[in-house]
Amino acid sequence: MGSVARAETSPRTAVRWAASAAATTLLLSGCAVSGAGDDSDAPGTEQAGTAAQLQCESGGGQRQMRGAWLTTVRNIDWPSEPGLSAQEQKDELDAYLDDAVDMGLNAVFLHARPTADAVYESELEPWARYLTGEQGGDPGYDPLEYAVAEAHERGLEMHAWFNPYRVGLQDPDIEDMADDHPVKENPDWLVDYGTEGYVDPGNPEVREWVTGVIMDVVERYDIDGVHFDDFFYPYPKDGAEFDDDATWEEHGGGFDDRGDWRRDNVNQLIADVHEGIEATKPWVSFGISPFGIWRNDSTDPSGSPSSGLESYDAQYADTRTWIQDGTVDYVAPQLYWERGFSTADYEALTDWWASEVEGTGVDLYIGQAAYRVGEEGWGGDDALSTQLDYSGELPEVGGDVYFSIKNLREQAADAYAELADTHYGQPALPPQADSPEDQGPLTGAVQGVRAQAEEDRVEIEWESDDAARFYAVYRLPAGAEAGSEEARCAALAPENLVGLTGGTALTDTDPLEDGSGYVVTALDDYRAEGPVSETADIRG
User: Fold this and answer.
1) CB contact at 8 A, 438 and 423
2) pTM, 2 dp
3) What is the DSSP letter of 174?
4) Which residue intervals of 162-257 are DSSP H helices?
5) Using one digit for the tens of pLDDT, what is the confidence trace for 344-369?
6) How many other C-beta atoms can be found within 10 angstroms of the C-beta atom of residue 347?
7) How far lies 320's CA from each of 88, 211, 271, 285, 354, in Å?
């Protein structure tokens, strides 16, 4: 099966690895200039200019993760049902991406590998059944390739969400497994667990396989991140036993405790994936959304003040070690409990996770339970905003991810609107990935920026930059002198950010009555912001 995924052959590829001296400028007195020029003499209210290399000290737009999970397993979110035509699936996906933009989100986490299968064209694993109704059934296009392109065009990050070990339910997933499924070809990888099946994390061949599957996607698709959720060893079930006796006997040497060995198996996978990404595309973020409780403080003094299931012991997921070892770039714990809940209080757990990431370089986003809106304890339009009233004030919290986007558009729509009004008053740039030391932005100043005032809106356009992943558009503050360097740098502030896009045009639907102009910056693959453009003056 030949791959149609876009290889990394775009003009950005060479730029990523090029020396960054040309893009790095000395910061002096708020900004530094490398070259200058202005050929902006377009008639009327349209102004065109050639950008100077003006790198400002101001931080630009606010950096914050605002994401939502887009779930494919069991057709929870998308596609709405199996067997839709390629165009119907694309239309549904487009609608979700449009909704994400309208909600003020900046990232979508697409379930690309739900049950050891693929929502993308793969030579390693069969097509997911949720596309056509049959595992291995070709949907007629590449959903992940399409999703990445459409998300980027809208200024959204696209993160590929993988389940590393889950194979699915006995019925229908395992009973109807495609003939070329790797588990069917390697039956010793499979561990039956009640009504489910998992590949065995203790088998080194499994770890190598899963890592290879993920790296295949990293290498072939222009994704912004690799994401795991909370499925490692399975959640405990009454009467079910995870029978890994054979691999424990063969590979458990050196461990006195099977639990420690299981945790080490997972730790090795996490480290291998992180190392592979860093060596291949270091701008791709790698993060995990674990169950919200690592351990309770009644079990371990390092644990949280809670009394619920412990992922360290139940799933052998030692998130605390991943943070301390730096084998993840971020964690997004699923804090799906309300403030004041005695078993697992949202405030107490947020504090615990914040203290765990503090000073580590690992980012913290909070997994938010949009699906719970309407349940007991989650009533009222402030059901979600009250959570951010607390966590949004903690400096260690870098944003939120919502489960799921379908819930945001349905039963949580009013609650999310309240949250957006309260907490998302301005657009936000995505978090910046760690780039090599002393590397400046890999993009130059955006050229040819022009703006046209039309009734109650302004149309801003510019020339494409081969090194740009996204573009950020800013209004100059009211009363600013459009031609000055100070005004251009002053524009790079959160309150002036109009929006983010992957294209070369954006519409400001809420312009200032006495606005003077606009500037544009390019974000490189690390989401670092390059020099500010010349001003497009709309006053003629």
Assistant:
1) no
2) 0.91
3) I
4) 182-185, 204-220, 245-251
5) 999 999 999 999 999 999 999 999 99
6) 18
7) 42, 21, 13, 18, 12
